[in-house]
Fold each of these.
Amino acid sequence: MDKITFAYKGRYFVRDTNTIEYLSAIAKGYGYSTGLVYDQDIFGVTDNVFYMPIINKMFSSENNVAKKIAKVKPEYVVFIENFGNLKWIENISRNLKAINDKAKIIIIRPLERKETAVKYDYLLTGEPENVFADFLRDKGLRNIDSEKLADLNTLPLPDKDIFSQYINFSDSYMTYTGKGCAGSCSYCEETAYKNEYSSRYCRRRSPENVISELVWAKKKFNFKEVIFKDSVFTIDALWLKKFLKSYREEIAVPFKCFGKADAVDENIIKDLKNSGCYCIEFGVQTLNEEIRKNVLFRKEKTEQIKSILEICGQHELKYDVDHMFGLPYEKLEDHIKAAEFYSNLKSLNRIKCHNLTYYPKAEILRFAAQSGDIDEKLIEKISRGEISDFFAKPQKQAMMKENACFRKLFKIMPLMTRETNSFIIVKGFWKLFSYIPNIFIVFLQLILALRRNDLRFKIYFKQYPKKMLSFVTQG
Ligand code: SF4
């Protein structure tokens, strides 16, 4: 049987891994056997809790990945390009060609970009599920370039087995009920996909289709929780109502999902809670309303966010909020305002801190240039895809030190009382956070997770030693 090996670097709970699961299932449908060479990027930049570059170096070897691929002697090796992995693909493909030039390299390119130094045999440009199926149907004879989108309801069940050596699906089962997002935030990759494929890209599977996957997966893995990774799970009230009814009847395990303050109301919150939702995550990003609206292109008003978080509190539905650092034009008073806002919230589970990342063609590049955070040269490089690290970091950012302090403070805020948080903010003690080592903050986050019975964090910590062990035993 012909073999296809997928190569992937990064954490598991993201879109690309789900795409690989679908591609593997499609390939099996065409009679191929499939495998995976997986660099879990331990302590790497794709890890949103434990990013420790020095330790990451100890756990990564691009030559090893190429050797592992060569060892299984595949007919095809498949890479899916994303904003952060161009350099990695370039290095692996070069190393691989040097030790085994028989394996044919397939690059799947979901977003149009200029040519890079990646060595490949086939280039499939378009939505992965669609172009890969076309390629296999044609018996691997040609490059494909297609704007067509896959019908999500006719895809096979995702091949979870391909990651089962690394991920314990009985702890947590990840699924997506659709693709894309109705929003057009200036910094977001979903906006890039919408711009590439038009608004048709934003679509959803039927409730029945999603439930049938979950029924199958529950039987197979007996999972304890589900995470719906859709950008805005609550976007369609009618779809959600129908889905949740079946979910309560046929699945009935706790779940986590993502909402948006202007795409949720009290009825939805109640329905989510009654259906087993134990946590919902909202993007807040900044408490500066003008920046949120005019720079980030987010339409939610602060009052709207506040009101929906209060409703979650009233119905005892825990929530996480996403806060972003490194925004153009942000000032110290915006962080102080955010800290005051967060310290007054009830049922707040976690403040998840993110750094702004710059994607090619993202609208936010314009504001970053105007504010002086980055210069034209860097924008050029980002646009050409030459900066292929996950973070194209701002060159100069006036708020670096303040950002570092508030990032640490926000991570542990829900652990402290409202009075303590207020004292830290009013007295300016937030400045002292620059002296607190990151590892201590991680330790406090762990305590917070245990106190809150935070399922996601527990799973994360449970899986980390397994990740490290699998690196040591398998290289
Ligand atoms: S709402 Fe979220 S997922 Fe949608 S475009 Fe904005 S940031 Fe992206």
Amino acid sequence: MLAEMDDDLAAEAVTYREADTADLDDAALDGIWALTQAAFPPGDFSRDDLAHAMGGRHFLADADGRIVGHASVVARLLDVDGQPLRTGYVEAVAVDPVWQGQGIASELMRAASAHIAGHYQLGALGTGHPAFYERLGWRVWAGPTWVRTADGPVRSEDEDGGILWLPTPTTPTTPAEPPISGREPISCEWRDGDSW
Ligand SMILES: CC(C)(COP(=O)(O)OP(=O)(O)OC[C@H]1O[C@@H](n2cnc3c(N)ncnc32)[C@H](O)[C@@H]1OP(=O)(O)O)[C@@H](O)C(=O)NCCC(=O)NCCS
């Protein structure tokens, strides 16, 4: 009974909001960085990873006057077997360890997924925790992954099985734009840090 009341109080103390990167002030940007450093194992989340999370839409959870949960969606062009798809790519999913296990990341991912469904032909993300996202309707990409570099496409075998995708209402389904099965080769453009 007491535990249930504690959970209710915790849930009430968390508020959710969305913002474009351009509308985040320095305190919010610092807060996102601090959150990632608290949530990820030491050295796992780099400044490159932070840069990858910028330039799109942020989904934020606030509590105790600070940011305790974050996910963002940035625009990328993924190529699925020769079809370039405007993709909402999820970055920097993190919840403060003190606030984990209360559904915060699930709530942020529901909002991020709805944003992707409304704006993109495909959702995608790279993760070492596929099961967390599969519970929320995401699927493991079963095809081979590639990175488009200045020297041409390069296989990224290490990422195979760690890329997840989400179909949207505008995911191709016709012969003119062949339907996506998730078993095709898929590629992203190269970038500093982790390309996927
Ligand atoms: C992964 C993370 C974002 C989850 O945040 P959270 O707010 O605790 O997640 P939720 O409370 O919404 O979790 C909901 C469910 O997912 C499960 N879950 C959490 N992490 C999971 C994981 N890594 N794999 C599988 N399931 C997971 C929880 O057990 C919970 O299950 P339940 O509802 O059946 O009890 C958080 O643990 C975190 O910040 N980890 C460090 C950073 C990280 O790994 N980010 C993701 C990188 S892609």
Amino acid sequence: MKTKAAFLEKPEKIEENPLKIKELELPELKENEVLIKVNACGVCRTDLHVVEGELGEIKNIVPGHEVVGIIEKIGKEVKTQKIGNRVGVAWLYSSCGSCEYCLSGRENLCQNKQFTGFSKNGGYSEYIIADNRFIFDLPTGLKDEEIAPLLCSGAIGYRSFKLANASPGSTIAMFGFGGSAHLTLQLAKKLGHKVIIVSRNENHLKLASELGADFTFSPKNGDVYENLKDKDIEAAIIFAPSAIPIMNALKVIKPSGRVVVAGIHIYGEIKIDYDSQLFHEKTLLSVESYTREDMIEYLRLATNLNIKPVYTNIKLEDVNSALTEIKNSEVMGVKVIKF
Ligand SMILES: [Zn+2]
Ligand SMILES: [Zn+2]
């Protein structure tokens, strides 16, 4: 059986349009796998890092890890799903199940995990094969393209929000305003926090205000520390893939505050001055993807709180330009491939 997919032979700058539309032969279904006809796949910044080779040298891969589709075929050992079910596939393709991390509910840190659209072919494709133990039942009442971005952009924001551990009603600052931040802003607002959005993009700040941000600020208009130091910021989440906002956030958070970095890859070097950025029991930590438990919690929360992405549907053929727009911070919300 064949599938039409956006295929990457080897990493290249996105401006070279490295993803080529190709017919690929699907492998035989293994016992624990399902074949899914893809309805929608979100375009995530991580895919840009994959395509440009920042997550390591890869070859011959189909990116895409925010996948919503319908099961068309199941392997012999699959007991929990049936043909016709609508399911989601995300970044964590599988984990080993037996290491210290897997055994302690931290499968996101498993040293033998595989990733959708990186170690295994992903959702920039009409069909995808997935491990049935790592796919998700999806809430009804949301469109395919409304759910797809929740599966990574939303989930990573949720885990970052959880690790930020901000007290009820406190102020959270978010640096960068792409796919993940625009969902996490909604989450934090609906859970009663004050939210500050910092971005260099005026259109992003406008969207942030429309989505309920209490205060927005562009570093083009002045010094971040001087403008945010009196804002009583307890936690900051860094969505922009850069060292600069991390250093700014550490400086503006109040004593015992936390800075959580949501990105899988950061440009630049983080230089920390102990007195002004880390002393007073401040914490800096990173987030690595999500666990299945996080995803199940988040999908329930997103449904109950009516969190929906701002999205534009695109065709598979347009995925190079969508990734270029992510690189240039030109996307409002998210772009979703609709099949
Ligand atoms: Zn493991
Ligand atoms: Zn992602």
Amino acid sequence: MKNLDHESPKKRVSMHRKFTRRDLVKWGIVGGGTAMFGLRPAWVRASRSGSLSMAPATTPFLMELLPGRGLPPVSQPVTPFPTMEDPGDCINEDHSQAFHVSGPREVPPNTEFHLVQVAPVNHLFHPALPANVLWGYGGQVPGPTFVARSGTPQLVRFVNQLPEDDAVGIGLPTLAVHRHGGHQAPQDDGYPLDTFCPGQSRDYYYPNSPAAGLLQNEHSTTWYHDHAIDVTAQNVYRGLAGCYLNFNPLDTGSELDPAPALGLPSGEFDVPLVLQDRLFDANGFLYYDSFDHNGFLGNKFLVNGLIQPFLRVARRKYRFRILNGSNARFYNLVLSNGWPFTVIGTDSNLLERPIAVSSFPIGPGERVEVIVDFRGTILGQKIQLVNRLEQTDGRKPGDLVSPGVPLMEFQVNRDAPDFSRVPDILMPITEGPRELLSQVKIQRTFKFGRSNGAWVINGELFDENRIQADPRRGTSEIWHFESGGGWTHPVHLHNFEMFILGRDGARPPLLERGRKDIINVGGPYPNASVLIKFDYDFSEQPGRYAFHCHTTEHEDMSMMGQFEVL
Ligand SMILES: [Cu+2]
């Protein structure tokens, strides 16, 4: 059924359409400062009150991660509602490439329905700062956590209740929701031009069924965030991100389940931790400079939306799903007492076997799942999660420093029964490089570089009318990712996962031998050759998806391409 409300918000927003990074590229005014001073749009804030280095001091470990504040609630299903027609692109009607599903969709009868209002929220990062007006899925930051079970589809309606005009001036209220790491049809992938504006809604259907029935396609930690064209960096910075956890017949979500269930720590002992950095001005208000195209860094560190919080923990094993939700910052994590992490997953997937490490790197968009065992601690003990990686600009991560910056603190305060297990085999790789390599017929090379102050792939800016690769469904290809100029680019592929075959001919590090959906190249990361199998089973139609740099400022300007699975 045609929703007549679609017309008016579209016109209103397009009247207020703001300048974007790509406009600057078109006008040839990127890279400078003073030359474009007269064109500086109102939504680009000058520093409100002097030096940004003067942000108010924030004592660490004052804010406790608690249910509803730092530990987001799990999204609960609602009564099924009639699905609706997609708005298509709500800003630019001439974007012919936007996906438009006409009419309501047919969904299987066991589909769970969810409803998420995207709305402003008064958010307290820390008691020393004033409340900031953020944008939150479900009116909270991070957004509600989705819990999905393999075989149970979810249809999520996101309702855009953001204001058309906004005093804060960070972000644009045109939305596209991308489930990062998920397998979903092109119209449900948050294609950057499939935007919906204030007053509009969009339904996203997540099948939650492994492609081709492969065990290895059962996902673990995925996440969802805004992906609207040109403004992803600001919209995510403003708060639009959340976790999407996936359970399956092996990883059941209950440590009480007997083998073959894995029995990983579950319930309150399975905790997503979203790492982000944010820049605050001298008055404690969030600051963002849309003319910084290099990658925006903050002066405060957040975990789950709170500045350097603490979590009370019991003397037992925990599963922490660590997501780097930062725009441009890389981290290298250690525990302050020198204890190891047991890594069980990277990006969307569990590893084949757990790997014990004393530290690990994590770049923008990446996930690393770890088990931390607090047995052997004493009650009252405090252990910090510490970032040892220095970074001074968006170019690349710097050196390891000591002692580093604590991101949060674990405070051991109790005992609790622990029935959880960490088996030696987690998720067998049944179809990996060994099985797929002999089938490869096509190799492609993508160079991530810089041109005239903008970011390019093989010398080209993002163009919705250009397809950079057209793999055939069911086939495997080798893609070579290269970076120039010493910049690090976290390269993200939508909908499909990658095995790193090598980095400049060398075997990848241990933590890069599982399935990945982001591969860092450049700076300290050598060029990478990756194997991708294009499992695609959503329809007879070709599937068009984006791939891009996940330093979101690079992505917005305009380091993104697209491929079409034929
Ligand atoms: Cu980049």
